[in-house]
Automatic annotation (TrEMBL):
Protein name: Uncharacterized protein
Source organism phylogeny: Bacteria, Pseudomonadati, Pseudomonadota, Gammaproteobacteria, Alteromonadales
Species: Shewanella benthica KT99
Amino acid sequence: MARFRINEIFELAVLAPSSDVGEGQKYWGREVYSISNKHTSLIQLEQAAAQFSWEQIESRGGVYQVGGELSALWIFPLAKGESPPAILVINNISDWQSLLNEFQESMLGTLLFSFVRSFGHIGCLGACG
């Protein structure tokens, strides 16, 4: 999976079918077959597994607070059955949220400037005409 890593925003983990694994495994009773970036993804995977149940993520993939950052989590089963292997996608959207907030603030400033300028133009037309 490391070869297919696109950037630091998306992390991928291929998880084994659930089983009775030993005490050391913390990933919803699943072993990790492969992971895109072990240094960052494994930490996020551990935090997500500690905070949320597999059923929560599986039934409504969505936005979660993982390790103090907003992340979107999706599960894609790789086979049919009760507990198939799956790909877990972790998408850090904290940066996207910051960009969206900056864009909204910028648009608000542009809108305010446009109103001031249009009222000034209308006032000038009324005084000059």
